[in-house]
Design goal:
The protein is mostly helical. It has 2 domains: 93 residues, Orthogonal Bundle (Rna Polymerase Sigma Factor, Chain: A); 100 residues, PhyR, sigma-like (SL) domain (Butyryl-CoA Dehydrogenase, subunit A, domain 3, Up-down Bundle), CATH 1.20.140. It contains 11 helices and no strands. Helix 10 crosses helix 11. The chain is elongated and about 50 Å long.
Length: 203
């Protein structure tokens, strides 16, 4: 078996995963290291969507894994394991932003009447249809950390503005502002990318 779980291994509680988790609960360091290696790619991919700096993302990965080990007794084996892991990692990221809430508050509070949910999703879909995931990540990394965090939670991880407001302890208007800003910047970057590709093809 390779270093990482396949999708099916993460999504169902098979005997191999159950045994690893059982040993982790018993403080078996070898099993804990094995689980860390198997979950690393999943955890890092989530953290890098929120943190551009690799060291910052790695710190969040390690903090998340500590929470995973500490809460294994609370894991419901009838639920997908990867979904449980994702929730812990995202909550860890949210906690890190809550500690630096001032970066989220320095915006003008605007009552948006437009349907930001559909428009944000549309921008993500347009970008994903044209560019590879690596380029999408590069575009997201050009957003300010706070804006990138809110946009990730809203457009990619599926949180509502009300949920983001409660989790990050910001107003709903502030959440909408960040999504609107991200959508504007991503659209501009997408246009530049398309122009660059077109000019390259014409050469």
């Amino acid at each position: 078996m390779g270093a990482g779980f396949t999708g099916s291994l993460l999504q169902v509680m098979d005997s191999a995963l159950a045994e690893i988790l059982k040993q982790c609960k018993e403080k078996n360091e070898k099993a804990q290291f094995s689980l860390y290696k198997k979950l690393f790619s999943l955890m890092m991919s989530i953290c890098l969507r929120y943190r551009q700096n690799h060291d910052d993302a790695l710190a969040l990965v390690n903090h998340s894994f500590f929470k995973i080990l500490s809460n294994l007794d609370k894991y419901d084996v009838s639920k997908p394991f990867d979904a449980w892991v994702r929730r812990i990692v995202i909550n860890t990221v949210i906690d890190s932003f809550r500690k630096n809430k001032s970066r989220l508050q320095n915006v003008e509070l605007v009552d948006f009447s437009e349907n930001t949910s559909l428009q944000a999703a549309k921008v993500v879909n347009e970008v994903e249809e044209i560019i590879e995931e690596e380029h999408l990540q590069n575009m997201l990394n050009q957003l300010p950390d706070a804006t990138k965090a809110v946009f990730n939670l809203y457009a990619i991880d599926g949180y509502t503005h009300r949920e983001i407001s409660k989790k990050l302890e910001i107003s709903i208007g502030t959440s909408k502002w960040h999504v609107s800003q991200a959508r504007r910047v991503l659209k501009e970057l997408l246009i530049k990318f398309q122009e660059h590709v077109s000019s390259f093809i014409l050469l």
